[in-house]
Amino acid sequence: MTRLRVASLLLICLIVSLALAKDAQPLGEDPAVEQRLTRLSQQLRCLVCQNETLADSRADLAEDLRGEIREQIKAGKSDKEIIAFLTQRYGDFILYKPRVTYTTYLLWFGPFILLLGGLYLLFRYIKQRRELIPETPLSADERRRAEELLASASGKEPA
Amino acid sequence: MIRYLIPLGIFIVIVIFLAIGLGRDPHEVPSPLINKAAPTFRLPQLKEPSKTFSADDMRGKVWILNVWASWCVSCREEHPLLIEYAKSGAVPIYGLNWKDKREDALAWLGDLGDPYVLSVADLDGRVAIDYGVYGAPETYVIDQSGTIRFKQIGAVTSDVWSEKILPLVQELNRQGNSK
């Protein structure tokens, strides 16, 4: 009885794993094409999920677009041509790394401007503080007293 | 006093920027195809697959291309509006049936009514890729010269229709007639 149960369980596991195996992505026949496809689609955004790359997405459209890219690679198109094909249709938003154009200057260079601004404010602040605290040199009397104190302190607790 | 006003000022600026950012729908990606030529295609018609339809057949007319599918939930939402607008005769509406099964699509039109002059079947979604479709429904207004003038991403609402699409169609028709 138990043996039968174990056998049927095993059978179920086998069937399930077979069913899952069928769901996996069809392997491309040409590994070089697949490699280029993966590299390209990692730089592209899935428009349905938006925060996933085209390579990671399981969305229907992402699969279609990967298919389109695969065909274009096979047709001998260059990476540039394929990306141009996609941006013509879906806009620059499909690129994960935004292009450097006049609309994205603030995005690309804003952080450096902020950094420079911050450094400027920091230096100004430090300079101001230095001017606020005037250095008053010790008088001869004070210097002697300070040396006495130091001498007595170092005598008690040698470092 | 100014010591306290500066952080407050920065805070207000940040709040304004965040409020603008939150008010935007990140799902609406501006289409680069606006004011560009509508990609041409020739596809079999949904109801009569032996006949084809091409975007070029519509030269000289203002028309609407609506991307729909029977599996698309928002399409169901906008469907009664499309039927109403089609009845008004303001502008011919053509359907692009996107990645659907023919039986499902026909059943859907049978159940809910058919607002389209005709629909074409884009089974593998290649034409939809040319149009930059990334979710149904999407609606394009195309002018006499075959240029895309407007794109609605997501369901057409009565606001979008009365404030954007209808005025645009009327304006395009007026321009076309005066030429």
A few lines on this structure:
The complex is a heterodimer of chains A (159) and B (179). Chain A is mainly α and 159 residues long.
- Main sheet properties of chain B: 5 strands, mixed
SSE topology string of chain B: HEEEHEHEHEEH
Largest sheet of chain A: none
State the low-pLDDT regions of chain A, or none. none
Record field, number of beta strands of chain A: 0
Share of helical residues of chain B: 40-55%
Description:
Helix content of chain A is 66%, strand content 0%. Chain A has helices at 2-23, 31-41, 60-74, 79-90, 105-132, 140-156. The radius of gyration of chain A is 34 Å and the shape is elongated. Chain A starts with a helix and ends with a helix. Chain B is α/β, with parallel strands linked by helices and 179 residues long. Chain B has 5 helices and 7 strands, in the order αβββαβαβαββα. The A-B interface holds A 47-48, 50, 60-61, 64-65, 68, 87-93 and B 26-27, 29-33, 99, 124-126, 129-132, 134-135.
List the helices and strands and how they pair.
The complex is a heterodimer of chains A (159) and B (179).
Chain A: H1 2-23, H2 31-41, H3 60-74, H4 79-90, H5 105-132, H6 140-156
Helix pairs in contact in A: 2-3
Chain B: H1 2-23, E1 42-44, E2 52-54, E3 63-68, H2 73-88, E4 93-98, H3 102-112, E5 119-122, H4 126-130, E6 138-142, E7 148-153, H5 158-178
Parallel strand pairs in B: 3-4, 4-5
Antiparallel strand pairs in B: 1-2, 3-6, 6-7
Question: Which features does this protein show?
Answer:
heterodimer, A: 159 residues, mainly alpha, 6 helices, 66% helix, B: 179 residues, alpha/beta, two-stranded antiparallel ribbon, 7 strands, 42% helix, elongated
